[in-house]
Amino acid sequence: MFRFILLLVLFAVFARLFWRFVEGVMRGATMPRGGARPSHAPSPVKMQPCPVCGTYVVPGKAISGTSSGAPVHFCSEKCRSEHAVR
Ligand SMILES: [Zn+2]
Q1: What is the pTM of this model?
Q2: Which pLDDT band holds residue 39 (cuts at 50, 70, 90)?
Q3: How far is the CA of 41 from the centre of ligand 1 (A)?
Q4: In Å, how far are 15, 19, 31, 40 from 28, measured between CA atoms?
């Protein structure tokens, strides 16, 4: 019985290691030329710079607008109105 538990634990550890490896390979495959991407990156969300002040914002949380047809993301309401004035 003890042997069985030991085997099970070993299997779980190996399965986890294997899955981590597979995940790493898949991440590498989905990101061509990713190269040396820092592993401490906060999130895979692509940040967009505010066209007025240059602050990087998350498009999902930013104030969105359009600049000559192209979608842009502002860090604040102030920047959006400033951009409209220009
Ligand atoms: Zn801004």
Answers
A1: 0.45
A2: low
A3: 22
A4: 20, 14, 5, 16
